[in-house]
Design a protein that fits this description.
- The structure is a single chain.
- It contains 5 helices and 70 strands.
- 6% of the residues lie in helices and 34% in strands.
- It is elongated and about 145 Å long.
- The chain is mainly beta.
- The strands form 18 sheets. A 5-stranded mixed sheet has the order 59-66-65-61-63, with no helix packed on it.
- It has 5 domains: 352 residues, Neuraminidase (6 Propeller); 333 residues, 6 Propeller (Neuraminidase); 86 residues, Immunoglobulin-like (Sandwich); 105 residues, Sandwich (Immunoglobulin-like), CATH 2.60.40; 68 residues, Muramoyl-pentapeptide Carboxypeptidase, domain 1 (Orthogonal Bundle).
- It starts with 31 loop residues before the first strand and ends with a helix.
C-alpha cells in the first residue's frame, strides 16, 4: 500500500473532545534568542524576518521603485519589511549611499509592525509620485488601501495624510464598491489631470481616482476591466482583466499600459476620456485579446509583473518575472503580439534561468525609467536588490551598472549575493533547520539552510549564548557569503547535524547535494574542507540514488557515541541507513551496515507499516537503552526501534509508535498524544525524556520515554497554551513551524530552530542551582534551602531517599531544617517540579549530607617559646613554660587534643587532654639541653592535633640558645670562691634584685626604690618606672577592683595576658593566671577548687608580689623599641656575653698554668 503525500503539506487541525489539563495559558517565555536584534544590539523576539531583518542596508523582496527627479530621491517599496525606503541621489540621479536616508511605514530601520494604521504599512506593493505636490502614493496591498504621504520633507514613520479604499486609517476590509479595493498592486499617476490609476488586482479591474483634492475613502470616477463597480470576474477579453498589476502612463498619448498578470499579457487603453469597461486598443504577449498562453519567446511572457514607459524613446519595459528577464518593446506604434527589441537578464529570448550576477536576474518585479538620466531602475525581487542600467542604448543581457542591497564583508557592492536583508551576516539566519551541541568545547552548530552554511556560536561554560554573532562558518569562505555549488568546502541547504564529542567531528546532512559531509571541528577555519563524505564517491558528485552507499535527500542525523555509528535519515528513499564511522576507518562513499524502514538496500517505497515508513526526518538516539527514535513526518508519527548491536537487522519492526494508536494509521491530530508532521527529535539521556518538534502543530511535545506505550500522552508542551490549540507565533513564548528540538542537559533547556521565525529560541526549564549541601553537626540547628531558576508555574519539591535523623524536608519550599540527633551519611535525590496547566517541568539532583559531632577548633596562646642555657647545663631560672589551649569550636563540641614534640630535648609535661567548647587548659613544656652543642641555636616544633578539629594540626615553635661552656664569674681568691657548682652567675652590677620574665627568660639588672605604699621598679639604663601595688586578697573568676587591675598589669608586663586592664577577673585573666602558674609553680592542670588552678591564692599571690617587687617589669625603653624587638636584642647580647665569659674563663685558666 502506497501512502505518498506532499512532504510540506499543511497540517489538518483536528480538535480533541477532551484534554487532561485545563486549557489555560501555559505558554512559557523563551530565555534567549539567536537571529534577531534591534539597532542597539538587543534581542528582539517579535520580528521573524530572515538575516536579522529588517536592516538598514538590505531589502526583503523589493517590489517597486519610483524616482523623484526634482529632489533627487529614490523610493523603494520593501515588501516583506512592510516599509518604503528613501535613498538620496545626486543631481544625475546616481545612488550616493547604500544606506537609506528615511523610512516610511515603520518607526525606524530595524522595526516591523505590519498593521493597518495611519503610519504603518503591511505590504507596500506599488508606488507612484506626484512631483507637483510632493505626494507619494503607496499601494498597501494586504490592507486593501492606498496611502498618500506628504514627502516635501520626511520624518521616519510619519503619518499618511489621506487614504483611498478605506474610509479611515484603521479599516482594511475588502469592498467591491466604487470606493473599495481588494489587493491593490499597481499605481500610475497622471500629472496633467490629477488622476491616480489603481490596479485593484483581486477585483480584476483598474480604478481611476480624481486626486486633485482627496477625501478619505472617496469613490473612483471610472473603472477599466469591468463595466461597473459591482462585478469582479476574471476575464480574457478585449475589455476584461485577470489579476492586473503593473501600470504605466504615457502622458503624451494618454495611453495607460496595464500588466494583465494571469492572462500573461500587457494591454493598453486610451484614457484621454474614459468610458467604464472600455475596450483595450492593443495587446503585447499574446497575438489577440482572447489568448492567455505562457511561453519563453521574443514576443511572449511567462509571468509579467510590472512595467515602465520611456517617454523619450517610446519604449516599454516589462518585467517577465518567471522568465527572469526584462523585455523591451518599441511602442511608437504597436502591433498586437509584436516581438521585443531587447532583453535584460538573459543573453537571448529563449533562456530563462535565474541567476544572481551582474548581468543576470532572479524574479524581477518593479521598475522605473528615468528619462533625464536614461537610467533604468529595477527591483530584482528574487535577489533582494535594486539594479541600475544605462538604458541610453541597450544590448541584450548587458551588465547592470550598480547594485543596491548587498555589501560583502569588506563593505563593497556585491552582485553575487542574493539573500534578503543584506544577505548572510554573523548575527542573522535564513530558514534555519536542525542544530547540534558541543558540550565539551561549548559550541552551538546551526544549519542555516537558505544561506547554505553552518554557523558556529560560542557558548560559555554553562552553555549560555555568549555572543549573538557566530564565531565561525562552515560551507562558506566567510560570514557574509552564500555561494551555492558542489565542492569539498561547500554545503547546499544543510538539514540534519550530529556531533561526535570524542573526536570533535561534525556530521552535516547536505540534503540537496544528497550527501553527508564530515568536518573536523577540533579547531575551525572558516570555509574549511570536509574530511569525509558519505552518499557520494567524491566531493564533486551530487546525484541522488538508491543502494547501500547512496542517498536521496538525507535529512535527520544522530550519532551513537558508544558504538561509533551514524544513523542517517535518507528521507526521499524512506529509510534510515546505519554507518560504522570509527575515526580513521571511515572512507568516502562507504557502504552502510544496516537499513531500517525498508526490507533491503534497493527498495524505497513509501509505506505505512510497522517495518516500513514514508519519510525519515528527525532522529534521536538513546545511549543507555540502545533505542532509535525516528520521525516519519509523512505518516505523522514517531517510531521507536531497538538498535542494540546484537539485535539490529535490516528492515526490522519498530517496537513502539507515538502519535498514532497503531502502526497502520496516519492521522494528523492536535491532541495530547497526536502529531502533525513531526520533524526534529532530541533525547534526554539523564531523565529519559523525548522532545518532539511537532512542526505541523507548531509546538514541542515532551514525552516520558522511561517505558513507552503506543500512542501515550505527552507530559507537557512548549509553544502552545494547551494540547488542542495550534498557534503560529513570533512572540517570546511562541514557535512558528519549528522543525527541531535540541536538549541541553547541562542547564535543562531546549534550543529550538524556528524556521518560520528565522531564529533559534532557548526555552529554559526549571533548574536546581544548588551545587551541594554543607554538612551538619549533631546537636546544632541546620537550615538550607534548595535554589532554583526558570520556573513558570507552581514550584514544589519531592525527595527520594532519607535525610539524617532529626532533619526534615519541606516539599513546598525546598528547605531542609532541623537538629541532627546522630551521626550519619545520607545520599538522596531532590526533584524540583514546576507545574503549569499543561503538565510539569522538572529537574533532579543527587545530594550527599553527612552529620557528625560538632567540630572543635584549636586555639593556642602563645604560639612560640624560647629558652637559653649553657652547654651541658640545665635551663637556668626558667622551669616549665606553659601554652594555653582553648577549644574555640562549635558549641557542644569536644576537643580531644594530643601534643607531640619534634625534638628529644623538648619535653611536654602535659601531652593530652579533653576540652569542651570554650574550656581552656595549659600545656607545659620543659627543655633539657645537655645533649645540645655549645654555641648552637636549636629549633623544635610542638604539634597539637585532633582529627575532628576544623584547623588541626596547630604548631608551637620552640627555640633554645646554648652558650659555649659552663663558667664561674664570681670574685674572691684562692680557687674561685663564689663560683658555684653549676650555671653561671651574671657579671655583678649595681643592682640588688632580679626579675624573670616567663615569655623570654631574660635576667635584667635593676634598682629598687619605694614611693609611699607603692614600690617603684626602675630598670637601667634608660628604663621607665613601673609602679605595683602588692596583692592582698584571694582573686578568682568574677572578682573586681583595683587589685584585679594590678594583677592584669603584671600579667601583661610578663607576657601572659594580651589585653587591656579592665579591673574585672574574666576568662582571659583566668587563662593568663593558669599559664603563669604552669610557668612558675609547675601547676598546669586541675581546678580552682581542687588545687587553686586558675585562682590567685596565697602561694600564687606571694610569687607574684615577690617577682613584681624584686624584679624589673619595664616593657619599653627610651630608645622607642618595642618589647619584642628589645627581647630579640637582649637574646643576641646574652648569647654574645656567654661566648665572652667562656673566652675569659679560658684565658684565666691558661694564665694560671
Amino acid at each position: 500500500m502506497n501512502f505518498r503525500k506532499t512532504k510540506y503539506s499543511i497540517a489538518v487541525l483536528l480538535f480533541a473532545f477532551w484534554q487532561v489539563f485545563p486549557a489555560t495559558a501555559a505558554l512559557i517565555d523563551a530565555s534567549g534568542l539567536l537571529g534577531h536584534t534591534d539597532g542597539s544590539g538587543n534581542v528582539v523576539y517579535e520580528i521573524p524576518n530572515p538575516n536579522n531583518g529588517p536592516s538598514v542596508n538590505g531589502f526583503e523582496s523589493p517590489g517597486d521603485v519610483v524616482i523623484d527627479n526634482q529632489n533627487h530621491r529614490m523610493f523603494v517599496a520593501d515588501l516583506n519589511n512592510a516599509r518604503v525606503l528613501v535613498f538620496s541621489l545626486d543631481s544625475g540621479n546616481n545612488i550616493v549611499s547604500n544606506t537609506p536616508a528615511y523610512v516610511l511605514g515603520q518607526a525606524d530601520f530595524y522595526s516591523i509592525t505590519a498593521t493597518s494604521s495611519i503610519n504603518r504599512l503591511a505590504y507596500p506593493s506599488a508606488l507612484a509620485y506626484d512631483a507637483s505636490s510632493s505626494r507619494l502614493f503607496v499601494a498597501d496591498q494586504t490592507n486593501n488601501r492606498v496611502l498618500v504621504y506628504d514627502v516635501a520633507s520626511i520624518t521616519n514613520g510619519e503619518d499618511a495624510i489621506n487614504v483611498l479604499g478605506q474610509s479611515n486609517f484603521t479599516d482594511n476590509t475588502d469592498n467591491l464598491t466604487a470606493g473599495g479595493l481588494n489587493g491593490p498592486r499597481g499605481l500610475a499617476y497622471d500629472t496633467s489631470s490629477s488622476r491616480l490609476f489603481v490596479a485593484d488586482g483581486s477585483h480584476n479591474r483598474v480604478m481611476v481616482f480624481d486626486v486633485s483634492s482627496i477625501t478619505n475613502g472617496e469613490d473612483a470616477i471610472n473603472v477599466l476591466g469591468k463595466s461597473d463597480f459591482g462585478t469582479s470576474d476574471q476575464e480574457t477579453t478585449i475589455n476584461g482583466l485577470s489579476g492586473p498589476r503593473g501600470l504605466s502612463y504615457d502622458a503624451s498619448s494618454s495611453i495607460l499600459f496595464v500588466v494583465d498578470v494571469e492572462n500573461y499579457r500587457v494591454v493598453s487603453f486610451n484614457v484621454s476620456s474614459i468610458t467604464d469597461g472600455e475596450d483595450a486598443i492593443n495587446v503585447l504577449g499574446q497575438t489577440d485579446f482572447i489568448s492567455s498562453s505562457t511561453n519563453t519567446t521574443q514576443g511572449s511572457f511567462a509571468g509579467p509583473l510590472n512595467i515602465t514607459y520611456d517617454s523619450g524613446g517610446a519604449r516599454l519595459f516589462v518585467s517577465d518575472n518567471t522568465n527572469n528577464r526584462v523585455m523591451v518593446f518599441d511602442v511608437s506604434s504597436i502591433t498586437n503580439g509584436e516581438d521585443a527589441i531587447n532583453v535584460l537578464g538573459q543573453a537571448d529570448f529563449t533562456s530563462s534561468v535565474g541567476t544572481t550576477t551582474q548581468s543576470g536576474l532572479s524574479g524581477p518585479s518593479g521598475l522605473f525609467y528615468d528619462v533625464s538620466s536614461a537610467k533604468l531602475f529595477l527591483c530584482d525581487l528574487g535577489s533582494n536588490r535594486v539594479l541600475t542600467y544605462d538604458a541610453s542604448s541597450l544590448s541584450d543581457g548587458e551588465n547592470a551598472t550598480y547594485a543596491l542591497g548587498h555589501l560583502n564583508g569588506s563593505g563593497n557592492i556585491s552582485y553575487e549575493m542574493d539573500g534578503p536583508n543584506g544577505g548572510p551576516k554573523p548575527d542573522g539566519l535564513n530558514y534555519p533547520y536542525l542544530s547540534a551541541l558541543d558540550p565539551v568545547n561549548h559550541r552551538l552548530f546551526v544549519g542555516d539552510q537558505l544561506n547554505y552554511r553552518v554557523l558556529v556560536f560560542n557558548l560559555d561554560s554553562n552553555n549560555n549564548i555568549s555572543s549573538l554573532s557566530a564565531a565561525n562558518v562552515l560551507g562558506q569562505e566567510d560570514l557574509y557569503s552564500n555561494k551555492r555549488n558542489v565542492a569539498q568546502d561547500r554545503v547546499g541547504r544543510p538539514y540534519g547535524l550530529a556531533y561526535d564529542a570524542s573526536s570533535s567531528r561534525l556530521f552535516v546532512a547536505d540534503g540537496e547535494n544528497h550527501r553527508v559531509m564530515v568536518f573536523d571541528v577540533s579547531s575551525i577555519t572558516n570555509g574549511e574542507d570536509a574530511i569525509n563524505v558519505l552518499g557520494q564517491a567524491d566531493f564533486t558528485s551530487n546525484s541522488p540514488d538508491i543502494g547501500d552507499n547512496r542517498f536521496n535527500f538525507p535529512f535527520g542525523l544522530t550519532y551513537d557515541a558508544t558504538n561509533k555509528r551514524l544513523f542517517v535519515g535518507d528521507s526521499a528513499n524512506a529509510r534510515v541507513l546505519v554507518f560504522d564511522v570509527y575515526p580513521g576507518v571511515i572512507t568516502n562513499g562507504q557502504s552502510a551496515s544496516c537499513v531500517l524502514g525498508q526490507p533491503g538496500f534497493n527498495t524505497s517505497s513509501q509505506e505505512l507499516t510497522q517495518s516500513q515508513i514514508a519519510s525519515a526526518d528527525g532522529l534521536a538516539y538513546d545511549e543507555s537503552g540502545s533505542r532509535l527514535f525516528l520521525s516519519d513526518s509523512l505518516n505523522s508519527r514517531v517510531l521507536v526501534y531497538d538498535v542494540s548491536t546484537s539485535t539490529i537487522t535490516n528492515g526490522k519492526n519498530a517496537s513502539n509508535v507515538l502519535g498514532q494508536p497503531n502502526f497502520t494509521t496516519a492521522n494528523q491530530l492536535t491532541t495530547q498524544s497526536g502529531l502533525a508532521s513531526p520533524y526534529g527529535l532530541s533525547y534526554d539521556n539523564l531523565y529519559k525524556r523525548l522532545f518532539v518538534a511537532d512542526s505541523g502543530n507548531s509546538r514541542i511535545l515532551i514525552f516520558d520515554a522511561t517505558s513507552i506505550s503506543n500512542n501515550e500522552n505527552a507530559v507537557n508542551v512548549i509553544g502552545a497554551p494547551d494540547f488542542t490549540t495550534t498557534e503560529y507565533s513570533f512572540a517570546q513564548n511562541g514557535i512558528n513551524g519549528s522543525p527541531s528540538a535540541l536538549f541541553d542537559p547541562t542547564e535543562n533547556r531546549l534550543f529550538t530552530t524556528d524556521y518560520g521565525g528565522n531564529r533559534v529560541s532557548v526555552f529554559s526549564m526549571v533548574k536546581i542551582n544548588t551545587a551541594s549541601l554543607p554538612n551538619a553537626s549533631v546537636g546544632s540547628a541546620y537550615s538550607q534551602s534548595i535554589s532554583t531558576t526558570s520556573t513558570h508555574g507552581a514550584l514544589s519539591y519531592a525527595i527520594t531517599g532519607s535525610l539524617p535523623a532529626g532533619l526534615s524536608f519541606n516539599t513546598s519550599t525546598g528547605a531542609i531544617t532541623g537538629t541532627p540527633t546522630s551521626t550519619a551519611s545520607s545520599t538522596f535525590t531532590i526533584e524540583a517540579r514546576d507545574t503549569v496547566s499543561t503538565g510539569y517541568f522538572f529537574d533532579r539532583k543527587v545530594f550527599s549530607l553527612t552529620t557528625s559531632n560538632p567540630s572543635p577548633s584549636i586555639s593556642l596562646s602563645p604560639t612560640s617559646l624560647s629558652y637559653t642555657a649553657s652547654a651541658g647545663a640545665s635551663v637556668s631560672n626558667q622551669g616549665v613554660q606553659g601554652v594555653v589551649i582553648t577549644n574555640a569550636g562549635a558549641s557542644s563540641s569536644v576537643l580531644n587534643w594530643v601534643a607531640t614534640s619534634s625534638a628529644s630535648w623538648l619535653t611536654i609535661t602535659t601531652s593530652s587532654g579533653s576540652l569542651v567548647a570554650g574550656a581552656t587548659s595549659t600545656i607545659g613544656f620543659s627543655a633539657n639541653p645537655t645533649s645540645l652543642s655549645a654555641g648552637s641555636v636549636n629549633n623544635a616544633t610542638a604539634t597539637i592535633t585532633d582529627s575532628s578539629a576544623t584547623n588541626s594540626p596547630q604548631t608551637i615553635s620552640v627555640t633554645i640558645t646554648i652558650g659555649s661552656a659552663t663558667v664561674s664569674a664570681g670574685g674572691g681568691g684562692g680557687g674561685g670562691g663564689g663560683g658555684g657548682g653549676g650555671g653561671y652567675t651574671p657579671i655583678p652590677t649595681t643592682t640588688t634584685a632580679t626579675s624573670t620574665i616567663a615569655t623570654s627568660t631574660i635576667t635584667t639588672s635593676t634598682s629598687s626604690t619605694t614611693t609611699g605604699n607603692n614600690p617603684t621598679i626602675t630598670t637601667s639604663p634608660g628604663s621607665q618606672s613601673f609602679s605595683f601595688k602588692p596583692l592582698y586578697r584571694y582573686l578568682s573568676l568574677g572578682s573586681t577592683g583595683t587589685d584585679v587591675t594590678e594583677l592584669q598589669r603584671f600579667l601583661i608586663a610578663t607576657g601572659f595576658l594580651k589585653a587591656t586592664p579592665t579591673g574585672y577577673f574574666g576568662p582571659l585573666t583566668r587563662t593568663a593566671v593558669q599559664a603563669y602558674q604552669c610557668s612558675r609553680n609547675k601547676l598546669c592542670s586541675g581546678s580552682e577548687i581542687a588545687n587553686g588552678y586558675g585562682g590567685v591564692g596565697p602561694l600564687t599571690r606571694s610569687k607574684i608580689n615577690s617577682e613584681a617587687l624584686g624584679g624589673a617589669l619595664s616593657t619599653t625603653n627610651s630608645s622607642g623599641m618595642t618589647r619584642e624587638e628589645m627581647l630579640i636584642l637582649i637574646e643576641k647580647l646574652k648569647a654574645q656575653l656567654v661566648v665572652l665569659i667562656a673566652k675569659l674563663a679560658a684565658l684565666i685558666q691558661s694564665g694560671a698554668r
